[in-house]
Write a structure and sequence with these properties.
Length: 488
Amino acid sequence: SSQGWIRMAALYKRMAKFLGGFRLLHWGPIVTLSLIIFISYVTLTQVVKNGRGRVPGPIELAWYIFSVIMLVYCYLKASFGGPGHAPEGWKPKYASDEKFLQHCKRCEGFKPPRAHHCSTCGVCVLKMDHHCPWINNCVGHHNHKVFFLFLCYVLIACAHSCLLLGPYTIRGVWIVFPRMSRYPPSIVLRLYQMLMAMVLALSLVVSIGCLWIQQLQAILGNITGIEQWIVKKAENRHRKIPFVYPYDLGWYRNWKMVMGPSLLAWISPVRITSKNEYADGIDYPIKEGCGKYDLTIEQLIQKQLKRHRSYTANVQKTFNTGCTNSSLNFVSLCVRYGFCSIYNYPGCDEACLSVKPGDQLLVTRKRKYWIYARKLASNGRTKTLRSNKKSNEAESLAQREAGTKEWSKRGWVPVACVRELPQTAEDFQRSMAPPKTMNGGLEHKETTLRKRNTVDSHDETSSGKTYSKATRSNSSSDEMLKSKDKFQ
């Protein structure tokens, strides 16, 4: 059966390559392009060709066609262009900076500032905002502008379709539907098409409008969705020095950094940036008084705290992620795991984890009804790896890869499926206290930052303008590292 699935996956990839790309053969692009084609087709055929609804003039019609073309172009560019990925095996310029950065074991390199590893794409994405299933790609440094323009043109085109279809559709629903038997089937079918197109366009205006507001706030604040969560945790935890987000340069400079320096660059799908707001995806201009690695140091501290406070739990009930995709199993899921667990389902990009009784989990995050955990390798697998010392190298390598895949499985699991292992009073106090190595691991960074003041100020010179932020940025990191607060 496993070989059959492998053959089906290989056939799927060949079909995707033959049909023009793997990106579009996904439920997100298929649904998105289908909605765009259906709404624009009904609007153009019923309103323009058949004269139903409010017939636009030539200029208005040209504007509608232009918005649909730009919508499709920005969508394809955001999907196929990609957000930009960190170079394979990337390392910082100075070896001493490696201790400030996170190391990605899957990509076998260091993560640049503002970069995060996407488990869906399998790479480290530059300035990752989120993984969008509708474009089947991540939104990041290179495609953030075209993704925002795609949202703008969706709002413009769908709102325009509602204005063109609205008068005739509302009048038809008011007159035709009560006396449907008196009208020929062609008129009733045409009215159904226009009503469905208008409802879909109106729903897209509402849903995409909410996403457009979120992306506008992210651009004006020069902060991604992931960084918003990091900053929120940094501000909520106890600290002596208030955390300052280093990449917020003011809403106008933040806007120019993503959209471009002029009005023509704002509406163009080509990424154009000025010299003062230039960023290559690895190095970004920072706020005065902040350090280059302030955010990455905060990430390291938060991850150290998360690892220190994680705990183990045993699985008591089976949880299959395939059951959550079927609406027919809703009643059985409510009975098995509780209605509150299903109602508070974590609707996010992170997937759920299939577990069975006997599995052991390492819990890193907990909500009221769900936990986020990794699946630990079973004792049987560990014994098998130790007992097969005399086996050939191929079998040992396959077993190691199987153990790695087993460890890499992680996701959300209902709390009703697990039983937390009892903790003693000493374990509880140890989990609530900060790790002893937190300050010790950061004490040596002060000397390293001071030694590079002159070099950094020379490297941050661009087009005759010297960034005097180097010394001030390092002083911010020095103050943070001098703090003897336990949580800092």
